Amino acid sequence: MKFKSFLKKIKSFIKKERNYTNKLAFNTFVLTFFIFLIELIFKMVTNQNIFNFSSIRILIGIICFSLIISYIELFIKNKHVVKINLIIILIISIYTIAQAGFNNFIGVYISFNVRSQAGAVISYFFEFIKSFYWYYYLLFLPLILYIVLSILNKKHILKIKVHDNSTRLRNSIVCLSIFLVFVFLYNLTLNLNIFQNKLQAISNLELFNNPTNPSVAIKEFGTTMFAFLDIKNSLFESEENLISNPITYNQPATNIDDSKWLDLIDKEDDLALNYLNDYFINNNYTGENSYTGLFENKNLIVIMMESVNDIFINEDLYPNFYKLVSGGYYFKNNYSPRNSCATGNNELSGMIGLYSIYNKCTANTYSENIYPQSIFNLFNRKGYKTTSMHDYTERYYERREIHNNMGSGRYYDVDDLKIPYNTKNEEWASDEDFMKKVVKILSQYKENERFMTWLTTVTSHQPYGKSLYGDKYLYLFEDNEYQDYDIKLKRYMSKLKVLDDGLGVLLKGLESQGKLDDTVIILYGDHYPYGLSNNILSEALPYSIDEKYENERVPFVIWSNDIEPRTFDEYTSYVNILPTVANLFNLEHDSRYYTGSDLFENDYESLVIFADGSWKNQYAFYDASTTNITYYTDKRYKTEDIIKMNTEAEEKIKYSNLAIQHDYFNYLYKALK
Fold this sequence. Notes:
Blueprint: H1 2-45, H2 53-73, H3 78-105, H4 118-123, H5 125-130, H6 141-152, H7 168-191, H8 204-209, H9 214-235, H10 259-267, H11 271-281, E1 299-305, H12 319-326, E2 329-335, H13 342-352, H14 362-365, H15 375-381, E3 385-390, H16 399-406, E4 411-412, H17 431-442, E5 451-456, H18 468-472, H19 487-512, E6 519-525, H20 534-537, E7 556-559, E8 566-573, H21 577-584, E9 608-609, E10 615-616, E11 620-623, E12 628-631, H22 639-661, H23 664-672
Parallel strand pairs: 1-5, 1-6, 2-8, 3-4, 3-5
Antiparallel strand pairs: 2-7, 6-7, 9-10, 10-11, 11-12
Helix pairs in contact: 1-2, 1-3, 1-6, 1-7, 1-9, 2-7, 2-9, 3-6, 17-19
């Protein structure tokens, strides 16, 4: 009898174990199947290859996630499990669609690091939704399928009884063991060379620990895993993976004295700071060239034009801007790569000559940083009066603090300038009104006072629906070659007309004050008008923007009344503005402090580096998120050459980011001065 009783207990135990195991296995399978299906559809609708090793890594990661959820569901009544799974699949579906749409709308993926800009996204919510391609909604198919199957199998699905706690400890051990096996497998995909694309400049392990490049991270880990990594990174900022190496010093070909810097390196114990010391002391040092001092002792006005692309180069519609383009140095292959906070970040890069942090509102996050090497401080040390102005509030960017810490002698916003605007209807201020105020302020400078001012415009900002300035010049696009343009495009072009009127006001004002001949004007677009789709923009652009990032081409002009007009073919971006200005005005500076380059240096490398590490020059375009390369000429790069270029591009971004995170140049300036 005792033996039979023992067998009965064993049989009962096995039955309980089987029930729990079945439930765990079934729930894990269900969640894995539907979440992985979402990831595969996402790859397809975003033109990613699904037949590669990243798909295996994504699958294993989803299994790990599903195991955790399924184990928790063992302690929940079965009638609630289907609802919980439904909610999880729904959230992942919405998040994934939002990622696809946001990348299409803004050009970057969503990151929790820019949650402070949520208000800006909400402001354009309907514009955002309207920009979705129809096939993005295919990402809801797994959710619909799950709902249908749940209804059809309502009486049978997960019909497994939950037993007492006697077997839960054992099941916990089993579940943990399975989970650890898949964690081990996942770890292998991060470390084994077979899972690492050799052209990818940043390793998968480093990217997993610090997912600062969302484009590559989502490709390698999927949207679900990226969400967890992004949340972790936003709550607990990860340091770069730094390994102590002996610092070598390559003396620049100049008489510059680096003895204090070398002494600092010898005494510095902080690994990150010495990494930065090592990189920047050995960074490319450029001496004088034929353009050095071309504008020495002249005034400077830099204008960062909101949402301006090459549509603005139109003599008939925008004569004032055309005068500057045709009469100055025009860089036809200039780009303003987008990132999470394109306007603020690209303004910052123009002012400090460093790449901003891709997945953060860098200017806001590090608003307390001091940049002794900024454009304002270089001119301050030359004895210039420096100012900065913007015809909007600090709703999005904390410019008053940012510009002040960069050395701007005075910052004026829309309220300081007393320019009318209407926030309720997202009606931006008029750039024409803005320039009138600018001219008035500049009139206060005496004849012998040199000034440098930075202007950031706003009128041409999206949205491009019905508005005061969007409708003001619509009559210019009727009964002519523009009449068939999309109405949004016409309203954008109407807003550009307001900006052009403002440039006219500035030019006439400087001329009437006798300052025009002594003033250099530099203009660049902060980013292309991303409120308009490529199809709409193509109606007015003279070139194709089908290739990835080609829509990010924007004007860059250096104008002075006494230079011979010239068009440059070199590839460039906003990060090169400051080093170029420093040379043209013969300002005291160290070119090694910038990851940008002087455009006129004798060995300038024609290249633009995009936010995700992609790059483009006259020969090829390398896409970092796919590791594909497209050639434009017969020239071909060897694999080792591509790897070298990718590494150099990644290093420029990495050390720029690290310098900003550690307020490095403030530290360096204090130590050396």
